[in-house]
Amino acid sequence: MTRAWILGLVFCLTACSHLSTSSTDLIRDGKGLENFHQVGDANWRVENNLIVADRGKAGFLLTKESYKDVYIRAEFWAETDTNSGIFIRVTNPTTIAAASSYEVNIWDIRPEPKFGTGAIVDVAPVKTP
């Protein structure tokens, strides 16, 4: 599980106090990570227009701005033993977890399959076959 956070892309959208003045804000312009704070020891960087990390036990990218409403589009590649997710409405950026935010889960080998990939952990389960 040491690679769990390494190859994962985690966007953490902080508390919902800011409403953008434009109808759409792109969080990422395709060039760099200037709109993010990096938390943890992952080596986040942009390669070939993708956000990647391949070292570190845990790493998060938090937006520098807070947003009231969000539309997230993400493509995610992960190894089979990856444990990751996209955290939204993070209330405590020093302790990022499902207990203090909503985690859209990306983890196919989770012990409790009802909160596997696509679920919002402890809130909205996925349908299991």
Which geometry do the CA atoms define? Answer: globular
Spatial order of strands in the largest sheet: 2-5-1-6-7
Order of helices and strands: EEEEEEE
Reported for the largest beta sheet, the result is:
5 strands, mixed
Which residues sit in consecutive blocks of at least 5 with pLDDT less than 50?
Answer: 1-21
- Proportion of β residues? 15-25%
C-alpha Rg, in Å?
14 Å
List keywords for this structure.
globular, two-stranded antiparallel sheet, 7 strands, mainly beta, 129 residues
Can you put this structure into words, describing what you see?
By secondary structure, the protein is an all-beta fold. It contains no helices and seven strands. Residues 1-21 have low confidence and may be disordered.
Gist of the model:
The chain has about 130 residues and is an all-beta fold. The protein has no helices and seven strands. It has a domain at about 10-95.
List the helices and strands and how they pair.
Layout: E1 11-14, E2 36-40, E3 45-47, E4 50-52, E5 59-63, E6 84-90, E7 102-106
Parallel strand pairs: 1-5, 1-6
Antiparallel strand pairs: 2-5, 3-4, 6-7
